[in-house]
């Protein structure tokens, strides 16, 4: 079950809510994966890697405090073309308040077919994963790959990570992998990877 609503306008633009992030980390460190939100430098690199046709959407999975979402908006993605999915109701509520006009879905990124309305299936230009997939077993990583493929066939996804090498065993997952960017200006230093099914090009 999911619940998609547009954030109400207007709202304060700054979304780096470290307090909320840290509280959620205390409750569920594996779900959060990090102790602080992503840095502006990392968010800009993620936004720069986005590919989107004029009638396509950008899908952000595990949007947390909305710092990446805000960088996507700053990079020119229209709010109505951005869909953010967040499983924790408190954080989804925070995103609705902070991201006016953005489609906020409180739901599970491992069930995107159920979480996203049918008219959005097949209309995603880029999916971005903020969920700490590296901490999950292979079966869950496979389930995530399949969830994205169900709504964004052939597109794959961007993943940001603190790992020095690929955070995913991409060959086992049947994906191609490319590191697109690295920034030391994040705690810890981070990279942006693109994973795609081989036939996608
Ligand atoms: C690393 S944190 C957020 C990163 C975000 N860039 C930030 O700096 O605020 C990961 C987020 O993914 C969310 N999450 C974890 N599992 C999820 C799932 N299955 N579906 C949707 N969101 C999920 C967590 O609640 C958390 O907000």
Indicate how many domains the architecture comprises: 1
Rg value: 15 Å
Report the count of strand segments: 8
Instruction: Sketch the topology as an H/E string, one letter per element.
Output: EHHHEHEHEHEHEEE
Separation, N- and C-terminal Cα atoms: 33 Å
Q: Main β-sheet, in a few words?
A: 8 strands, mixed
Which geometry do the CA atoms define? globular
Our estimate of the beta-strand percent is 15-25%
The residue fraction in helices comes out at 25-40%
Which strand order does the major sheet show?
A: 1-4-3-2-5-6-8-7
CATH second-level architecture: 3-Layer(aba) Sandwich
Q: List the bound ligands.
A: S-adenosylmethionine
In CATH, what is the class?
Alpha Beta
Q: Could you give me the name of the CATH homologous superfamily?
A: Vaccinia Virus protein VP39
Number of helices: 7
